[in-house]
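Input set for joint prediction.
Command: fold jointly, output tokens.
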Amino acid sequence: MRLGLGGRNGAHRRGADPKAPPEPVPEEPWGPPPVIEVRSLLKTYGHGDAAVRALGGPPDPATGESPGVDLLVEQGDMVAVMGSSGSGKSTLMNILGCLDVPTSGRYLLDGIDVGGLDEHQLSLVRNRKIGFVFQSFNLVPRTPALAQVELPLAYAGVKTAERRRRALAALALVGLADRVDHRPNELSGGQQQRVAVARALVTAPAMLLADEPTGNLDSHSTEEVLSIVDRLNASGRTVVLITHEDEVARHAKRVVRLVDGQVVADVRQAPVDGPPPALSDPSAFAALSPHSPTSAAAVRGGAR
Amino acid sequence: MNPFETLLLAVGGLAANKVRSALTMLGVLIGVAAVIILLAVGNGSSQSVKDSIEKLGTNSLTVSSGSGGAFGGALGGGGRRTSSATSTKPLTVDDARALADPASAPDIKSVAPEVSTSQTAVYQGTSHTVGQVVGTYPAYFEASNSKVDKGDYFSADDVLNSRKVAVIGSTTATELFGTASPVGKKVVIGGTPFTVVGVLATKGGTGFQDPDDTVIAPLPTVQNAFTGFGPVSQILVEAKSAGATTPAQNEITTVLMGTHGIKDANALDFRVSSQESLLSTQSDTNRTFTVLLGAVAAISLLVGGIGITNIMLVTVTERTREIGIRKAIGAPKGVILGQFLAESTLLSLIGGGLGVVAGLIGSHFRIVGIEPVVIPESVWGAFAIAVAIGLFFGSYPANRAASLRPIEALRHE
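tokens >
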């Protein structure tokens, strides 16, 4: 793994986009690197006339070039990436999660230039730096919760005893200490998603990347999972939520909206250093919650 | 991931689909068992042929009528008669007498002319068709390695006096007398009453004719009763030692060329065959037989291997999403490769192991009258090949799994 220190500074200076995030960019080169630094990111599928521009917006009629996506996420932040289906948020999530490579542009994850890595190095980056939470839980079938959570540590080569200790701690953190021997088919959706969260955070990754984490959950489980995510963020974990539900986005400190592969809005709801909105003033947050039977049904109906 | 964990994961993968795994293993099992059993049958058949030929006595030579020189003997018969058919002189008792002359044939120990026929024997209402009724001299017993188990051989005196005595084979004895001792009993063979003087020890053997279903009686008695005093069917000659068979063969040829008045050594009207030539012909046939059986078995093992590839491809397709998840949480390519290779190798390992067990058990039974003799190399070989097949045929699906792109694998439904 090589560190893209020099390139990072250069990328900063080029980032003179009017829609750039309004928060101050840490300019001194020896400060902690941002967790995510994306510059002029473009992703197209297909070639020639059939090319589909999934990310980066439509090409400029004058120059024929797309502006691309710029995004900077600092340590400890909790960002919700919002957008309707087809807005490119899944493509962005795949690229941020090192599951896909951009057509052009730079992506630095925790100071590492991911663009130059081969497949094996990418799998290492996914293992050490990213914790995935998917909409469809994506647990390994036929595997008990404990083994499930141990899996990333096993791939990282952690010793059995240490692995077990950390996996149990992660499961306790999501409140599933009494479910360690249950297989995915013996767990409810909410419990499965909490196992997935435990699996994502057991390696102490640089960021938790959650793709519609509550899309398949009822309102009660949604609250459960989101409160776990809130607590994780309050303890300093960087979180990126991909969602199209306002109810989920309310929990984030910052909301980035994507339309047609371009960032159209970037709103800060709470400071990076403080606790997430749900924990800074729980009573006010609950009062604003649209949590009535009708709205809960609407939330569920809106889930794809 | 240490090897033990990989193995555990593979066991879990196989256990997830028990019927399918079991059927795939069955393919390998059948392949390995077939290799072991069929090679054992081939080996067993050549062993038993070798044994039965050695039982006949390796010193003995058979002279039979017909052209063809010293080739093949009984196996090669019938092929070359046409050219000299008109001039063929049958073998006679006089020929045998000439061969018995130590002056012209010093390497010959004994000579026994024989006539043979098939007759029905009756004893107290029990009737049995004897495969071979042989009329010969007492020397026959030694030359053909026939030993008497109960009673005694008939003597030269019996031959001279054409006594109606007979030595019977063990099968004939069982068929006619059951468990009772036949010695001293009178049995009616083809209408002529014979006194049984001895019973031969069981020779055992393979082939179409049971060597133990036989009646041996003095030559003139049989000629008188059944065949008439014409030519003899063959002359059994015993050489002085196993090393003397070749000079004895040459002496027989010289003597019989004299008695038959033949000048040209290429136009013989008789054949001299040694057990040795029979043995080599037989072992050649058997080698071909064994190789063919082995090839059939190897094909079934190959089919078993293709079964592994097939089922592993299905497994990889089914578990594409799982592979995607594993890759997303950081499984390197090598670990995925190892997991699926371990599964396919485990399939072939268990299948092969059970195949060895099945093969070893199966080779304890007689198969088409042949006692299989397991070749130890075939057991190790078949097992090793099965495991290698698992690795080889599993590598393609495993490689396919390992090369899946995580994003596509995750999208797979």
